[in-house]
Amino acid sequence: MSDADSKPPQARSPSDPPPPPPPKRGWRVWVIFLALCTSTFLAALDLASVSTALPAIIHDLDGTDSFAWVSSAYTLASTAVLPLIGRLADIFGRQRVLLVSILLFAIGSAITGSAPSMNVLIGGRAIQGVGAAGIQVLVSIVTADLIPLKERGIFQAFTNATYAFASVSGPFIGGVIAERTTWRWLFYLNLPLCAISFGVVAVFLQLRRPPVESMRAAFMSMDWIGNAIIITSSTSCIIALTWAGVQFPWVSAPVLLPLIIGVIGFPCAIAYDAYVAEHPVIPLSILNNRTSLGGYLGAFFHGLVINALGFYLPTYFQAAKAASPIMSGLYSLPSGLVISPAAIAQGMLISKTGKYRLINLVGWCLMFLSVGLISMINEKTPQGEIVPFQLILGVGAGLLYATTFTVLAPLEPTQNASALSFLLFVRTITSSWAIAISATILQNDLSHKLPPEFIAMVPGGHDLTYSSIPLIPSLPSPLQEEVRAAFASSLQLVWRVLLAFCAAGTLSVVLQKQIALHSKMDDRWGLKEKEKKDRLDEDDDAEKAGAAAPAPAVGLSIDARSDESRRSRLVNVSLQPVPDTPAPETSSFAVAH
Question: What is the pTM assigned to this prediction?
Fold first, then answer.
């Protein structure tokens, strides 16, 4: 691993001309960006809102035996296809892959909303997961195609803020829909939003893309073996984590065997891509510097903490506080009110100062403080005392979306698609780990702390957490207090484990180096409108040069000096005499590709 991620930026001399102002962006860019934010909101809201509505779904569809797959099917499908999407976007273009992703998300939403059984609902959730994975990756890739890293802070801040706000407000929205109407509207409401996003993307997201001689040949040349290893590993891990502590003990063969296969499979996939694959799905170049590696580790622990808190804070309010789904969602809202402004603030600060490492450190310190405070709450803690803890949590979580800049700062723009796909892969797979680890701790601890007379009321073999929560409000007074105290105590153990993850996340900042954010762009991609304008400007310059040198005819020579410059389309344009060509009355241009 290289310690020299990048050369330190040189100080600018007072005699140097001032840097050019950032280019003005037309209305098309802002319309596209609005569509990207809408698509992001769709994917994040759907994932977050299901946790509050899950008891109602289980009750209506009699899904106590398979409830865990409502979230796991979504996560499994997302995780399995995430590494593929960056390469597919390079072959078929950003717009096509994003449109297919939005369409799949809409189809999955329709199937899930109309599901007559848990099996159909789980199938719909898997289709939603594939679409959501494409949406999340393409939003990041298209933003990187249109905005240079140095100026991307504010744009990245709004997309991150949109995702964060949807993630934290999702439990409240899900609770309102589940209690006031039916949980099915949670999925039906996605359809008009999908239609709007699809239309805007189809009309306005007109991006150029590098020519591909044969799409079929490019498709067949993909790293299918590496992808198969990653898909197998992801599936094995998620199956094991879904079963662990709920359907089978952690030390049983049905859990340990797939978990071992999955854990061993990931390094095998990276090794295969590094030394064997011709077109690796996870290039070693995005991992072999300490700053990007520190960013990936930080994103992993950030995802563990945020997903666990987002899933189990509503559980705390419903179980330990005996709150209704609406009130539990409302109680979870304070973090959502500040996480978006914090994400926007970190983007603006990074655009202004470039100090992503300092912002990561501050974010982790706030996360550590807030989770430590949350680990001390119990069933008697007033809600007014919990709100400040949630506000600190939201600020810290919002600041930690700066890990995107940590990952991309040492890399070339041509690596954006691979790096962002892998970053989202890391963030997505953490949700399964976070929920499985937390569920196992909670389930095992509840089995020792819940009163025996209450456990006897829960159907045998069913999950103690979600099967017992609907029973709590109707319990007689002495028993209800005991059950609420047991939930609060067991959740304290979950919060303490998350505190250890916060400490590990803080240590990931040590790996990172502060690197100046660059303004380079991958010019293979961008709006077609800009490409046409650039071509006209080149023609005007060439005409002026031809008028100034009337002697020989000239030819426009485009010299791609290296494979790397060819990939990033950084071409050298020069005017050269065309040999053995009689001078015509008007200048002619020969274009050598």
Answer: 0.73
